[in-house]
Amino acid sequence: MQHTNIFESYLIGEGTFDEMYQGKEVRTAYQGIFNFLKSNSPEDLTMKEELSKRLFMSQGITFTVYSSGEGIEKIFPFDIIPRIITADEWDFVERGIRQRLKALNLFLKDIYSHQFILKDGIVPTDIIYSCPHFIREMHGLKVPHDIYVHISGIDIIRGGDGTFYVLEDNLRTPSGVSYMIENREITKRIFPDVLRRNAVRSVTQYPTLLHKNLKSLSPRQVANPTVVLLTPGMFNSAYFEHTTLARLMGIELVEGRDLVVENHKVFMKTTYGLQQVDVIYRRVDDDFLDPLVFNKESVLGVAGIMSAYRKGNVAIVNAVGNGVADDKAIYTFVPDMIKYYLNEEPILSNVPTYHCADPEQLEHVFNNITSMVIKKTNGSGGYDMLMGNSATEKEIEDYKKAVLKDPRQFISQPIISLSTSPCYINGKLTPRRVDLRPFALYGPDGIEIVPGGLTRVALKEGSMVVNSSQGGGSKDTWVLA
Question: Which residues are in the Circularly permuted ATP-grasp type domain (predicted)?
Fold first, then answer.
């Protein structure tokens, strides 16, 4: 079987960095998987692809797409060809994420206490106070070990020259780690020998590390603190992840109705009576966490939980109010935070970003709109954004009107040509755009980053949008030892 049969349609776009090919040569990191693919027929690979789908189906690995008001549960799309990262590349990314998280954590501590960074004019005061995720109730609240960002998923992209950029910081309730774990388990089934021969570093230790960190945050000095995972419920798009992580850590999965606050302490209802809860890994957004403080209509949270948090009787992971640090309008100031708090130059670069609230920057955006992407500062999932190069004139005009109504809520970035990675689609290898979400855990002993992460892939030909809700999928991420 000649490899040209499967590779003949592999055409790399001009100005695109391809993860597998450098010119016409296969990169060293991909040589092992390239040789394996070359020695297998399309029929063999299609059988492996079908096996992966059956495994995903049998294990109920799903996500929910909200379309036209309906929640549609789907099997998570998975591409069988791994995305491979060399040890040197990973070392660079890992150092950059550690540096970034240290600065962001110091920023959160500062912004909810002395606010030195505002007084010194590094970050504009109005951007902070106009942020909907700046929680005034957090001001002066002491969090365990001064750690706000316990769990993060930093989105990394690669530009046309191979440079790594941070696209956004996810510091509230980042999702996707269960798919990282399940992707590796599926790969072990379909490529067992290839995985071993390439000396790929493990990602399966994530639940153990997370559980260790959660227990270390307990305000009570007990041998076995009670840790729970608080979920909005089975209709949440990431409910599969909530159940998976609770099962792998051996902790209780609870909803708001399963918890109660008495005497500023949180208790879990059990068949044996009330059991005090020490640590809550919450997957409920701030707005719905406590109806006495935030949204009074919420039935997802726990009435009084903020009073228990303020008294120091329960640890909440991630800390409340983190959204002020991953607001896309704040994102542009992260390099300045790194210099201000750490006295270091940023290792990882930001994508150039324009604030639509600034008249000069907005004029530049509108003048170059066909080469820009405009996003809401608190949007997610690939929704509510404009890709200028593919939008119609009417879509552009309508979006301009929305921006002009409230410019503070929008930022713009030049459209970056995301790197491509080989995908097995319709019996052939073809390049598709990818990004990377590594997951970092910040505990009392420091920052631990699982070697790999979730590689999201734009499965639609020509698409730059990797979000699963917009037709994207994922693939296993191999970090070589």
Answer: 82-458
